Amino acid sequence: MSRLVANLLLLLAATIWGAAFVAQTTAMASIGPLWFIAIRFALAAIVVAPFALREGEGGAGDARSWRYGAAIGVFLFLGALVQQIGLLHTTVTNGGFLTSLYVLTTPVLGFLLFREMPHRVIWPGAALALAGTWLLGGGLGQLNWGDALITIGAIFWGMQILLLGRGSRATGRPLLLSVQQFAVTAALGLLVAALFEPISVAAVRGAAIELLYAGVLSGGLAFALQAVGQRHTPNADAAIILSAEAPLASLFGILLLGERVSAIGAVGCTLIFAAILLVQLAPEWQRRRNAS
């Protein structure tokens, strides 16, 4: 698979995730955040499992793949947890753009933990995306408790992106890793939800559309696209592309929930898209110049 195709798969995943912020927000009128996470990722595991069993050599994976899957699943659960709770207290627009802070945490964690040296354009690209996120949030002085939780979650998403990329390359089975991380996340969600949240058939029925979208498309399809795409593009580049999720979330929030974005917020959106273009075009320009 070419890098261009991999990047397009990642961009499609970001689009699906952008719309998922709306589903995650509206679902909580009927169901608690923990049960939402548990059911969402259980559905995602079921959807991707048949494809994972046919991937590569088939089977349910060895001990190494399950170690990766378990570790990725823990960070996926933590990221989903703080994001879902945070959305109870903030807008889709803020949630989407504050989640995109993993654009900065991913290369920093990669360097600190694994000594992965990204292309030098990643750093100004990450700074540009961070500046755009700040503008779209209206400035840090306007962030509330929900915003703070989602900001902390950027660390968990950064670790999930890093480990999924490394695990996909090590095992050659990104779809299997997706199923494993979904299963771990669903199990953790079920365990914690059973302790802290009530559940009823009416709650599940009331959030059925959102659960199907978040589980089948946002969970099953988009995370699988991420896993496949990350096999063929650098981790830090993948983080920048996936940050398109933020302006797309804002767009869907405007169209579907009637949210409003200020003029300064529109500038922030432009900066994030500029960062995406920068990180994709600059390395190609350098290679062509070196080849000429």
TrEMBL record:
Membrane topology: Multi-pass membrane protein
Keywords: Cell membrane, Membrane, Signal, Transmembrane, Transmembrane helix
Cell compartment(s), UniProt: Cell membrane
Broad class of the protein's primary localization: membrane
Domain EamA: 6-136, 145-279
Signal peptide span: 1-19
Pfam families: EamA
TM regions (residue ranges): 34-53, 65-85, 97-114, 121-137, 143-163, 175-196, 202-225, 237-257, 263-282
SUPFAM superfamilies the UniProt entry points to: Multidrug resistance efflux transporter EmrE (SSF103481)
Entry-linked InterPro entries: Diverse_Substrate_Transporter, EamA_dom, EmrE-like
GO annotations of cellular component type: plasma membrane
PANTHER family according to UniProt: EAMA DOMAIN-CONTAINING PROTEIN, OS03G0707200 PROTEIN-RELATED
Name of the protein: MFS transporter
Organism from which the protein derives: Roseiterribacter gracilis
